[in-house]
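User: Sequence in, structure out. Go.
Assistant: Echoing your sequence, followed by the structure tokens.
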Amino acid sequence: MSAYSRFFSDRHASLEAYTPGEQPRDMAYIKLNTNESPYPPSPGVAAAVAREAGRLQLYSDPTCRDLNAKAAHVLGVGEDQILMTNGSDEILNFIFMAFGDSRHPFAFPTLTYGFYPVFARLNNIPYREIPMGTDLSIDPADYRGLGMHIVIANPNAPTGLYLDVSQIEQIVATNRDSVVVVDEAYIDFGGESCLPLLKAYDNLLITRTFSKSYSLAGARLGFGIGHPSLIADLNTIKYSTNPYNINRMTMAAGIAALEENDYYREKCRLVAGERERTKAALRGLGFTVTDSAANFLFAAHPELDGEELYLALRRRGILVRHFSTPAIRNYNRITVGTATQMDALLDAVKDYMKEVSVL
């Protein structure tokens, strides 16, 4: 990234931006680094997008009425409980903007989705990072009666670990005067959604994305679900920033995907099955692998340097995600792909382990 210009605001000069997963083009890679689906969208999506492509001279519907109606029907909630956004990152930023200020800080785990601290700093909101267990788990007791807005990714990223609904409810119920955000970007791959809790708690917000389980990472579509009053607050932010935040083709893709929901449920089952198979294989090779409920694995080997393994796999044409954070620098996050892709990963891991005389 280039140096800042002399016009860049001082209030952002120390901002540490979020780092997306790499997208190199120097060779053909097996991409297991950005948690994308290995499967294409359902057949109806391409047709729906093509139909809207001929109408791009017209603005999209800022209310997302048809998409909201379809999502509300699938999820069993009211249409006034949903707000569609340009990826789930946008709804998360809206949340920080709407509810955070100097008197209303946020809290989230020390190891979680990297955009949470970025959004807090971007919006000049104080925040607290809650330490995790030595096993990288989140203890709900650490969040009970915290008196701060809370964001928890469930399953968490990058660990994939999951809190059940009763544990989340402990947090929501003991923080009734704060907003509790449950980021369910990966919930379709394992675990139970907190959607049923919305009937009892007006301080709960759930965020979701079409990027992972609906194979629409390139379409940029996310949404929030919560009490109508919370959604109204977030709509105020939306209409003050970008009313036409969902383009016509993405809106059509979202509706078509929801209409073919069974296709995606089957693909999620395939990913979950491959996750368990690959986890067992890695453990058989001596890796420590978390019990991920997401579409990725989080793995480390006691005799291998995490960064060196990442680089060795990259040389072999396989991308995984490595983090430099000291507590997890020996781990790599591995997106679950097809059986063929995961076999290639395992073969590459074994090849490297033989190269360094660990296998």
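User: And one key feature?
Assistant: Residues 14-39+262-355 form a domain with the Aspartate Aminotransferase, domain 1 fold (CATH 3.90.1150.10).
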